[in-house]
Design goal:
The chain is mostly helical. It has one domain (14-146). The chain has six helices and no strands. It has helices at 14-36, 57-62, 71-78, 83-89, 91-113, 122-146. The longest helix has 25 residues, at 122-146.
Length: 148
């Protein structure tokens, strides 16, 4: 079945615009939290502990980093424009931060246009992006375990 999608056929109704706005504000609030945290660039992970959260259970139990270790540090560096430090902390975290930034802009363009912008099926696109980020996270984790 070869279907083509014309994004002009996908208007965004009021509820959809509200949901897009809420989602984008949720993402922006995540960036606001990242700005409020000083990244732990000495270890490259552990920035989340500044929020009162415990150290990584996986690392505490097995003495190796988990696939998401360094992700908060990565976001905290990303919002400061320290992209190399963000990649060093967690390359999948940098990828996720870029995707989240693009999502904020996509949401607001779609809200203003009242039509989905360039992506007719955001649920499918989101699943692909999540798969790519998860795959990148596991891949960078494997590299960390092999070449610490």
């Amino acid at each position: 079945m070869n279907e083509t999608f014309d994004v002009s056929d996908y208007p965004v109704r009021r509820l959809g615009r509200v949901l897009l706005a809420v989602w984008s504000l949720f993402l922006v609030s995540g960036f606001a939290v990242a700005i409020s945290l000083e990244p732990d660039n000495v270890r490259g992970y552990g920035t989340h502990e500044r929020l009162g959260l415990p150290p990584c259970t996986f690392q505490s139990m097995f003495n190796i980093p988990c696939p998401s270790c360094g992700m908060t540090t990565s976001f905290s560096n990303f919002v400061r424009g320290n992209f190399l430090a963000a990649a060093r902390a967690n390359s999948a975290g940098l990828m996720l931060a870029i995707i989240c930034t693009l999502q904020v802009f996509w949401c607001w363009v779609s809200i203003v246009r009242r039509r989905l912008w360039l992506i007719p099926q955001p649920d499918v696109a989101l699943m692909w992006l999540l798969g790519i980020v998860c795959g990148a996270s596991v891949l960078q984790w494997a590299f960390r375990l092999i070449w610490p």
